[in-house]
Amino acid sequence: MTELRGAAGAEALFSLSDFAVYTLDASGAVVSWNLGAERILGALASEVIGGSLAQFYTPEQIAAGHPEKLLEQAREHGTSVDEGWRVRKDGTWFWANVVTTALWAPDGELRGYARLTRDDTVAHEQLETSLRQFRDLYELTPVAIGLFDRHGYVLDSNSAMRRLLARSSKDLRGKHMNSLLDQGGTEPFEMNELSEGAAAQEWVLVRSDGEQVHCEVHVATSLQSGGDPFWLVVFEDVTDRRRESQSLRYWAHHDELTGLWNRTAIPQLVADPERAAVLYCDIKNFNRINEALGYAAGDEVLIAMARRLERQLPMGWSVGRSAADEFVVVCPDVAAEGGVAAIVTTVARLMHTSFDVRGHRVQVSALIGAALGSECRGSGEDLVRWAFASALRAKKSGRSSIAFAGPTLIDSIDGQLELEGELRDAIDNDELALHFQPTVAADGTIRTCESLLRWDHPERGMLSPGVILPVAERAGMLADLDAWVLSTALREAASWPVGRSGEPVSVSVNVAELMPGYPIFTDLIERLVAETGLAWERIVVELVETAIVDLPAEMRRGMHELRDRGMRFAVDDFGTGYSSLTRIREFPAQVIKIDRTFVTDIAHSHIDRTLVGVVTDMARSLDCTTVVEGVETREQFDVLRTMPIDAYQGWLFSKALPGPELAELIEAGPIIP
């Protein structure tokens, strides 16, 4: 042992009889065992030397690989410190403070470990005593509360928690958090994932009978008498609220009376507008049924018609209810169904029928407006609009029960589409422009420039993204617009000069529909990188918070592949949408951009300063850099630069500039506000 670094310290420790001091070889087998170890752990040296320490760990710790993890931490960091329950030879438990030090030979070879263990059971029991002092208080609350130690084991639980999980106090005590959660295939939970003051998370717990309980979780931390943290976790049962939310989401896209798709969902039923047809069916003189038999009888007719259409429409067709007595039928492929005449005949036959309602035979038929994708050349929403307009024309004319959307009709309702057409031309003819707003470090060095879309419209003047994007969304042009912005931004960035810092400036691009991770996006970026020579590391793609909720597995894999090449991802406008910490953790982001709404009043708002601090702490824990947006005053900047923020963006440093002006700004050097 004399040749080992740290060996002298190990020998000194070995003389401390009040502590369990022992050494292990490189495999973890016991080499030496002092009197303190015999006293604290209840085992003689002759019974332990040459064996493993597994007998002194709890079954849960062994199953979790805890003994091996402590040795691994010591190897990686030199020393590891642990605190938790241990088991004596006689089976009794004690609370242990354990320090493990790796011992290395001069040639770098691991020779073993020195370990010092202290019995802190008395201090731990003092904590438990203090916890019992407020038991009467928290037992009264109807909300489930649990106390967990730093390793995730239940120290205590109130009656509401025991009722929630249908478990006894004895059953819960000592249980690890992982045994209470419905893991659902996710990684095991660690207590250090909890953060006081963070947004409430939703967890799924499992009752003793196997039933799932959805809970909103709130966390507070406190310290034990020895200075170690413990967690007070409040579990608010939101199972019923969640069911209601799911029901609301369902009915947001379904008609409450018939259960069919509703007006909001119908355009989404048109998968391929060029091949599809939309038929808008308005039951003739439906009011006569309501007037003669009452509204309840009218509802019965609508429900019966819905069931008839569901049962008898050909496979693959869809049907929805758009309004009171109006149904919409979507045929996905006109040619495959025998052509226009065949589909119109099918729908007209189904809409022309009779129902027995409250002792009366009620005859119904419908006016039909049809829009064919092969002739109208529009999106699914366009086809629904044009089919509706055709049905109105049929009703007004009174001459025919069927009308088709044609050029004249479309022209009459397409004045509102004029701007969409102009935007399409602007994209195709490269008439749009990009301005770039710098993101700077605290010393004024320009790190990244965000691409911001502009359109110098000949009649409307300079249009911003707030005007352009809704037009593109209605027209189904978001993906094309994304592709144009990506292409233009990367080409311009490739020509930017290198600033005085010597580091090339990166370019960031917001995307709305052409999502990273999908093949079409990856193919475009690969082509642009090859054409421009721009380094992958200089490309930053920004996604708003809501876009990262429930990312498909394919998309996550593709994004990780792009990240491995050097591309960076940023969460834009962080704090304005909804995303659980789990989603943020799964998203391969390197940058979190704090929204300007938290900056506007930060010089005077303690809440805003606290929220920004929470975000920066979270970003650091995720190994992300933080950028704060909307910095417009020196007062804001003075407050923000006292926080661990990596970069700033806003008018205090520079407005968004055209490419040539940006190049001059980069060459001029740091931006000092």
Automatic annotation (TrEMBL):
<feature type="domain" description="PAS">
    <location>
        <begin position="130"/>
        <end position="182"/>
    </location>
</feature>
<dbReference type="Pfam" id="PF00989">
    <property type="entry name" value="PAS"/>
</dbReference>
<feature type="domain" description="EAL">
    <location>
        <begin position="416"/>
        <end position="670"/>
    </location>
</feature>
<dbReference type="InterPro" id="IPR035919">
    <property type="entry name" value="EAL_sf"/>
</dbReference>
<feature type="domain" description="PAS">
    <location>
        <begin position="21"/>
        <end position="78"/>
    </location>
</feature>
<dbReference type="InterPro" id="IPR029787">
    <property type="entry name" value="Nucleotide_cyclase"/>
</dbReference>
<dbReference type="InterPro" id="IPR013767">
    <property type="entry name" value="PAS_fold"/>
</dbReference>
<protein>
    <submittedName>
        <fullName>PAS domain S-box-containing protein/diguanylate cyclase (GGDEF)-like protein</fullName>
    </submittedName>
</protein>
<dbReference type="InterPro" id="IPR000700">
    <property type="entry name" value="PAS-assoc_C"/>
</dbReference>
<feature type="domain" description="PAC">
    <location>
        <begin position="199"/>
        <end position="250"/>
    </location>
</feature>
<dbReference type="GO" id="GO:0006355">
    <property type="term" value="P:regulation of DNA-templated transcription"/>
</dbReference>
<dbReference type="InterPro" id="IPR000160">
    <property type="entry name" value="GGDEF_dom"/>
</dbReference>
<dbReference type="Pfam" id="PF08448">
    <property type="entry name" value="PAS_4"/>
</dbReference>
<dbReference type="InterPro" id="IPR043128">
    <property type="entry name" value="Rev_trsase/Diguanyl_cyclase"/>
</dbReference>
<dbReference type="InterPro" id="IPR000014">
    <property type="entry name" value="PAS"/>
</dbReference>
<dbReference type="InterPro" id="IPR001633">
    <property type="entry name" value="EAL_dom"/>
</dbReference>
<dbReference type="InterPro" id="IPR013656">
    <property type="entry name" value="PAS_4"/>
</dbReference>
<dbReference type="Pfam" id="PF00563">
    <property type="entry name" value="EAL"/>
</dbReference>
<dbReference type="Pfam" id="PF00990">
    <property type="entry name" value="GGDEF"/>
</dbReference>
<feature type="domain" description="GGDEF">
    <location>
        <begin position="274"/>
        <end position="407"/>
    </location>
</feature>
<dbReference type="InterPro" id="IPR035965">
    <property type="entry name" value="PAS-like_dom_sf"/>
</dbReference>
<dbReference type="InterPro" id="IPR052155">
    <property type="entry name" value="Biofilm_reg_signaling"/>
</dbReference>
